[in-house]
Specification:
About 25% of the residues lie in helices and about 25% in strands. By secondary structure, the protein is an alpha+beta fold. It has one domain: Creatinase/methionine aminopeptidase superfamily (Creatine Amidinohydrolase). It has a five-stranded antiparallel beta sheet with strand order 7-6-8-13-14. Strands 1, 2, 4 and 5 form a four-stranded antiparallel beta sheet that branches. A hairpin with a 6-residue loop joins strand 10 and strand 11. Helix 3 packs antiparallel against helix 4. The protein is globular, with a radius of gyration of 17 Å. The protein binds magnesium ion (2 copies). The site of one magnesium ion has 6 residues, from strand 4 and strand 5.
């Protein structure tokens, strides 16, 4: 199902996006050397509750996971990339951390992910990988607007990622979002322009380029959720929720 919001729904979508951005900004500021992933998860749950919002993750039990997720935020360290379950781990200097968060506020969900490096270290390959996903996300957003097709966004994202020298896995990618977190259309991180669903005002999309340094293949942890690079290489991921408007696209999850 592809959900098209009414113009009167947009303020609620903006509020949901602002909340996700605000929580991620707070989590980033608290992600210092020694912070435990389980603390980040607990703080996230507290902030969601304080805002009167609802976690999209806690009870989430899709076909690709192993039972309800049971946590509030995905915390992917180094070689973990997607659906990363928080576990008892204290962040170390130079860790590449991705926080991925989806929250529903007043019946509308927003979804965003940020990658950054913890502490003082600045591993060049990690910085380059993060920047590539950020550029790809910007390119995908720039290609979005009424009349554009999903393939135009996929092509824009994939061109940046491939141009930066990364393999692109198209199994997991962007998606429609609205009253639920994951909806059609799927927005692969690579594709052919001019193909696929034609975007309309009122459509919300989560765009989420992600890459792994030297492989396109994933392995699943024993927790049944966490996906890691098959080679143990580092990974990065950037995601925003956008609303298609009459004249372009509005980013709902930009930090203030
Ligand atoms: Mg996400
Ligand atoms: Mg998403």
């Amino acid at each position: 199902m592809i959900e098209i919001l009414k113009p009167t729904d947009l303020p609620r979508a903006r509020a949901a996006g602002a909340l996700v951005a605000d929580i991620l900004r707070t989590l980033r500021s608290r992600s210092t050397v020694g912070t435990n992933l389980l603390e980040l998860d607990r703080w996230t749950g507290d902030m969601i509750a304080d805002a009167g919002a609802r976690s999209c993750y806690v009870d989430y039990a899709p076909s690709f996971g192993s039972g309800p997720f049971g946590h509030y935020v995905c915390t992917a360290v180094n070689d973990a990339v997607l659906h990363a379950m928080p576990h008892d781990y204290a962040l170390a200097d130079g860790d590449l951390l991705t926080l991925d968060l989806a929250v529903s506020l007043d019946g509308i969900a927003a979804d965003s992910a940020i990658s950054f490096i913890v502490g003082e270290a600045r591993p060049a390959e990690s910085v380059a990988m993060i920047e590539a996903t950020e550029r790809a996300l910007s390119a995908g957003i720039a290609a979005a607007g009424p009349g554009a097709r999903v393939g135009d966004l996929s092509h824009a994202i994939g061109t940046v990622l491939r141009g930066a020298g990364y393999w692109v896995n198209t199994e997991f990618g962007g998606h429609g979002i609205g009253s639920t977190m994951h909806q059609d259309p799927h927005v692969p991180n690579n594709g052919r322009p001019g193909r696929g669903y034609r975007l309309r005002p009122g459509l919300l999309l989560a765009l989420e380029p992600w890459v792994m340094d030297d492989t396109a293949h994933l392995v699943t942890d024993a927790d049944g959720w966490t996906l890691r690079s098959a080679t143990g290489c580092r990974t990065a991921h950037s995601e925003h929720t956008i609303a298609i408007t009459d004249d372009g696209a509005e980013i709902l999850t930009l930090p203030k």
